[in-house]
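A sample follows:
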Amino acid sequence: MFNNNQSLVKRNQEGKNKVISLFNYIKELNHLKNKSILNISEHSWSLMFSDIHDDSENIKIFYRDRVAEEDENDTNEVLLAVRKPILRKCPAPDPIFVDYLLPDWDDWRKEAEVRDLETQDGRILLFSDDAVRVESYKNWLTQRDKWRDKRKIKEKTKNLFNSLYSLYYELIREAETKELIVANGMLCDNENKFKHPILTHRVIMDFDSDENIVYIKDTNASSELYTILLSQSEILNGDVLNKINEDLQKNDYHPLDREDSPAFLKNLVHQLSSNSLFSDSGIP
């Protein structure tokens, strides 16, 4: 009986330990799922509009500046469209100097260079000996430089497209747990405790496989304050927060509205503290 009781106690304790471990696991999982993100760098993906380069052929940005009369039925307007660029090859060199070119002359990441040639009998053929060859090379270099400048832009566009393309399918796979928002008003403190946009708005993604274009489109969702940031930082009392939220609900400021939203953000930040500072030209 003694041995059997000992065994029973041991099994009961093992069961308790398993239950405790399970609850600890659920607790940690819940903590991860509901983690308060106070720094934009902690998100799995982000893109600053100011970092989007100029490529009018493949990139279109559509802001949501408020107009006198808005079409309430137009709920899926395009905010960003990125087409996969066509990467053109380097202009072909003239046969008159092609043998003098060093390898990788068609690599946009490298400068084109020439060399002198040595014949089988040991003679040296100087590239500069032929004025026509030199002039032809200079003309080709001008064409190559133009191609290279465009190619640099197209490579950046390709990288942006690939990033959005991957994000599009990631959001499809994890639609139950992830969403995409557009945001504005980077709120920061002097102690680097938080750095995160305060005005948010839910958006969706779409992909046109025929045209090879990735879209970020607007939705009819209302804009929201990232209140987690305010509550965690303990810099705003409830009455003021309610007043700001009422203004937001009434006017529904959009993060990509360059007309009215800046005034809203300026008013918000001035209510945080007497020492607060609003900047419309980047983080001070």
